[in-house]
Design a protein that fits this description.
Length: about 190
Amino acid sequence: MKRLIILIAILLALAGGVYYYEITKDPYPELTDEVIQMIGGQGIADTLVANFEQSKIALAGAIQKYKDEGLKEEDKPDIVLFVDLARDAKYIRKYEVAIQTLQSIFDYYETSDIALINLAKVYEDMGEYQKAIDTYLKFYDVFGVQVQQFHLDIMQDYMALGDKANVIKYYAEFRNEGFDSEEIKQYVTTP
């Protein structure tokens, strides 16, 4: 009996330690002192975290309503709710949450230009330039349009990757459409 009491005491102590750890664990480890300074200080960081939490609640509520109403087309969660949450997650450097949120739009909508554009921007912020390029190219494939700004973004992403051949290729297309960029021109003409 004494062993059982000791075992229970040990288990309770361990459980209390885990509970304490969960309570005191930083829910926003991405917000380092350096990041907080980059975004403008603790006050702005606190506001961004509050916005993130509000966006999570708003999207969760909309998804729950959609499920409760019988998954009707007209009750789908508004894409803006997904984008707001992803934007807020990106601001506080929760990139994986931003990516998952934007990708989950496709669980509800067959296509979304805004999801692809924002996804590419998240990848760029993460330094995942090839994923950003692939996402812009998917946008082109899905929507059949090429946008001047995205062409510029693709070239800048290839520059970040050090892929001069692709920068030259896209720059030629860019110029054929009547556009130009001093930054890109200087890059492709510098040996």
